[in-house]
Amino acid sequence: MTLVVVEPPGPTGWLPGRQLLPFRRNPLRFLERMARTHGDVARFRFGPLDVYLLSHPDHVREVLVTQNRNFIKSRALQRSRVLLGEGLLTSEEPFHLRQRRLAQPAFHRDRIAAYGRVMSAEARRTAARWTDGETVDVSREMMRLTLSIVGKTLFDADVEDEADEIGAALTDAMSLFGRLTNPFGELLDRLPVPGTLRMRRARERLDATIFRMIREHRKAGVDRGDLLSMLMLARDTEGDGTSMTDEQLRDEALTIFLAGHETTANALSWTLALLALHPEAETRLHQELDAASSGKPPEPEDLPALPYTRMVLAESMRLYPPAWTIGRQPLEDFEVGGYHIRAGSIVMLSPWVVHRDPRFFSDPERFLPERWMAEDEEARHRFAYFPSVQDRACIGEGFAWMEGTLVLATLAQRWQLRLAPGQRLQPEPLITLRPRAGMRMSLERRGASSGK
Description:
Layout: H1 20-25, H2 27-38, E1 41-46, E2 49-54, H3 57-66, E3 71-73, H4 75-79, H5 81-84, H6 95-103, H7 109-129, E4 135-137, H8 138-155, H9 163-174, H10 177-180, H11 185-189, H12 194-220, H13 227-233, H14 246-277, H15 279-293, H16 307-319, E5 326-330, E6 334-336, E7 339-341, E8 346-349, H17 351-355, H18 374-379, H19 397-414, E9 415-419, E10 427-429, E11 433-435, E12 440-445
Parallel strand pairs: 2-8
Antiparallel strand pairs: 1-2, 3-5, 4-12, 5-8, 6-7, 9-12, 10-11
Helix pairs in contact: 7-8, 7-19, 8-14, 9-12, 12-14, 14-16, 14-19
């Protein structure tokens, strides 16, 4: 019996760059057009590479859960090892499993609760530093704030004096997303072109901070209550009984550094901007904060009393997901949605596309936090919403939700923010979804009853 191979639909024409160039110009619009024109399974090419965009929650589950053993990280993530090394984000089994076992205790519920107090304290520092009537770049402010939080929780260190340099290094790293999706990127990595030199300088700058912290922790030899201490003290009791080397510590620390800083900062920037555009949601948020806090700053134990705050954050990440695309590479041919997908190709899952599909979210372009009421969430397909989900449950998910909720609650308790004249919401899809050219907003102090 002859197997019938059904290829997914897609654009015609196989000239090199025919699809890659419009993707590089506007990735979000390109992916939306592919899904809208060709359906839930669309095929196109990036130069010599076959690419398949899967845009149904059933297919997302198939890749991330059901058949996850048939997939390795995408070429872009594999190539991001030039910066991140073999951290949890980029490593594959069995090494990933070993590293996860070692890192898991650092994210125990009791530890995360202690980190929550650091998050609240740093958010209060930012809120106290702002002045009424001032116009700030909220994107830059959130980057500095989350950098301070990750510095304290990861290293038990104040990195505020290094914030500008570290932020610039991370920006340089983020700006090289196009290199990661370039079929000839490996060749460019070996040439002394400007992008390669920027990446090397960014890595050197980040390494200088992280290796210095590792040396200081090694010298102290005690548990300082931070993530790095936990990673250093951990032993692989289920494996070979060893601990992490300095290089392994560096890779995990940098991964946590990036994930705990970049993605949360972007999520908060989009959230504050969306609240400014939707005063009814902002009013309800303020009412919840005032009722829950009685004037005192939010702390981790207050989180159960802040369901709407979390709903606001969830809805913001639906519209502006930090991980706007997730890539995988199949090890063997497989079928999905009745179509044949070739081994070695690129499989793309786009939260940006799925989150804005009216089949899964009514009135999808509308900012509506109420859609995250428990009964609505339970009725929705589990994989219709995956702003940062991976095939393996994110080890830092609890950390990230606590950070985002506490920071948003603390800032919104004291301040209302308004978009500066001419400021628009323009996403820039790099490795994460950043606001293009920042997010300028003016500050308005709330009343004394709001925790002034």
